[in-house]
Design a protein that fits this description.
- The structure is a single chain.
- With 404 residues, this protein is of the alpha/beta class.
- The chain has two domains: 2-210 and 386-403, Rossmann fold, CATH 3.40.50; 229-383, 3-Layer(aba) Sandwich (Rossmann fold), CATH 3.40.50.2000.
- Helix content is 47%, strand content 15%.
- Helix 7 runs antiparallel to helix 8 (157-178).
- The longest helix is centred in the middle third of the chain and has 22 residues, at 157-178.
- The protein is globular, with a radius of gyration of 22 Å.
C-alpha cells in the first residue's frame, strides 16, 4: 500500500513530542511493508541534513521544501480569516511537488500529521484520479490549546490567541467533515472535540503515545537517595513548558528550598528561552539546553515535576519518567490523557503548598516511593509501548467497516 505522509517538520531525529510520535508511527508502517513517501517542510540547513539522514537510515523517500517567508503568507491569511498556523505551514512549492507525485504515482492514502497540513489535501489536484483515502493525526485539539493561552497572556497577544483559537476550530471542524478518519492522542481530546461539534461523529479515533523502553529504562535502584534532585524536560521555548517552569520557580521553588536547602532542579531540553535561561542564575538550578543523553538526566533525578498550567494531549515526558522509574508530581491537567491513578502511579498537586507536601510525602516514605516507581513502570510496560499503541493505524489507512 502506497502512503503519502504530509508533515510540518522532518520526523527525525525523534527528540520532541510530535517528531517522536510521527517517527514511531512511520517505523511501525515501514516494518509492515507500507510504501511511505514523506513530504515535509525544512526550517534550516540542519533539517535538510536530518531529512537526508532519515532517508538513508530508513529507506523512506523524503521530499522537502524550505518553509520560506511565512509572514507574507500569514498576512494574506488574515484577510481571508484563515488560521495563522495554516498559513504559516503552507508553501506552494511543496504543493506542486505533492501534485506532481499524485499525478505520476499510485497513492492509496494521504496521512497528515497536524491540522496545518490538511491545506495541502484541500488544494490537491488528483488529475482525474479517484481521491486517496484521507487520514489526519490531529494529535491534540490545537484550537483549545490556543484558547488556554488567552487567559495567561496580555493584550495584544491574547487577541492573537483568540483569533487563532476561533479560526482553527472552524478549520478543524471542516477537516472532520471531509477526512475519512481523524486521530487524536487520547479519549479526552475526542470527547472535547465532540462537545465542540455539538454531536457524536464516527470518524474520530484514538491512537495514544508510547515510550521506547529500550531508550528509557529504570535506574539500577528504584529508591530515593540524597540529594533531592528534581527534573523537568522538554523543548524550553514551547510556551506550555516555559509557563510551567516559570510558575514553579515563582511559586514553589522558594518554599521548597526553605524546607530542603540542598534541593537541586534540572531543566533539561533544547532552545531555552531567555526567561528560562535566567532561572539558571540560581546556583541550585541547572538549565542544560540541548541534551544528547536524556536518559542520564532521568537517572540523575529522583523526582520529576510536571507543573503544567496549560496542556493538551499526552505528556511524553511523564511516560518517559515512568519508564525510568522516576516518580512524578504533576498537576491534573499535566496528567490528562494518561490512564494513571493519583496516589498509585503519580501524585497530583495544584498549589505551591501541595507541591511541597507531595514531594515531602515521597521522600519521607521510602516504601511509598518504591511502590510508586514500580507501579508506574508496570503501567508503561503493559500499556504504553509504541507497538501496542500503533497497531490500529494500518486498519485506519486501509478501508474497513469503520466507515460504514
Amino acid at each position: 500500500m502506497n502512503i503519502v505522509v504530509l508533515s510540518h517538520r522532518v520526523p527525525f531525529p525523534p527528540h520532541k513530542g510530535e517528531k517522536i510520535r510521527t517517527y514511531n508511527q512511520l517505523e511501525y508502517l515501514r516494518a509492515r511493508g507500507f510504501n511511505v513517501t514523506v513530504f515535509c517542510l525544512v526550517h534550516d540547513e540542519n533539517d535538510e541534513k536530518f531529512a537526508i539522514e532519515y532517508q538513508q537510515q530508513t529507506g523512506i523517500k523524503v521530499i522537502t521544501c524550505e518553509v520560506g517567508f511565512s509572514k507574507p503568507r500569514m498576512a494574506v491569511g488574515l484577510f481571508k480569516f484563515r488560521a495563522l498556523s495554516v498559513s504559516n505551514f503552507y508553501n506552494r512549492a511543496l504543493q506542486r511537488d505533492l501534485d506532481g507525485h499524485l499525478a505520476s504515482a499510485t497513492v492509496d492514502a494521504i496521512y497528515c500529521t497536524s491540522s496545518a497540513m490538511a491545506e495541502y489535501v484541500f488544494n490537491a489536484e488528483f488529475q482525474g484520479k479517484p481521491a486517496p483515502r484521507k487520514i489526519i493525526d490531529f494529535m491534540d485539539l490545537d484550537s483549545d490549546k490556543w484558547r488556554q493561552y488567552i487567559g495567561v497572556n496580555r493584550f495584544p497577544m491574547s487577541g492573537v490567541y483568540w483569533y487563532e483559537s476561533k479560526t482553527l476550530l472552524k478549520y478543524e471542524k471542516k477537516i472532520q467533515q471531509e477526512f475519512d478518519q481523524c486521530i487524536f492522542i487520547s479519549a479526552n481530546e475526542v470527547d472535547l472535540f465532540q462537545q465542540l461539534l455539538g454531536k457524536e461523529v464516527s470518524n474520530l479515533q484514538v491512537i495514544g503515545n508510547g515510550v521506547d523502553l529500550s531508550a528509557f529504562r529504570p535506574r539500577p535502584e528504584l529508591t530515593f537517595e540524597q540529594p533531592l534532585t528534581l527534573l523537568f524536560s522538554g523543548v524550553m521555548d514551547y510556551f506550555p513548558n516555559e509557563n510551567a517552569m516559570i510558575w514553579f520557580a515563582e511559586n514553589v521553588w522558594k518554599k521548597l528550598k526553605s524546607a530542603h536547602p540542598d534541593v537541586k532542579l534540572i531543566i533539561a531540553g533544547m532552545n531555552p528561552s531567555p526567561a528560562i535561561e535566567a532561572l539558571g542564575s540560581d546556583p541550585s538550578i541547572t538549565v542544560t539546553g540541548f541534551v544528547d543523553d536524556m536518559l542520564a538526566c532521568y537517572h540523575e533525578a529522583n523526582i520529576f515535576v510536571a507543573p503544567f498550567q496549560i496542556a493538551r494531549g499526552v505528556q511524553n515526558k511523564i511516560l518517559q519518567s515512568f519508564a525510568c522509574g522516576v516518580p512524578v508530581v504533576s498537576t491534573a491537567v499535566g496528567a490528562e490523557g494518561i490512564d494513571c491513578i493519583d496516589g498509585q502511579h503519580l501524585l497530583i498537586a495544584e498549589t505551591a503548598d501541595e507541591y511541597v507536601a507531595k514531594i515531602d510525602e515521597l521522600i519521607s516514605d521510602k516504601k511509598k516511593y518504591e511502590q510508586m516507581c514500580n507501579a508506574a513502570l508496570q503501567l508503561v510496560s503493559d500499556n504504553f509501548t509504541w507497538s501496542a499503541k500503533n497497531q490500529r493505524l494500518p486498519e485506519l489507512l486501509i478501508p474497513t467497516a469503520l466507515d460504514n
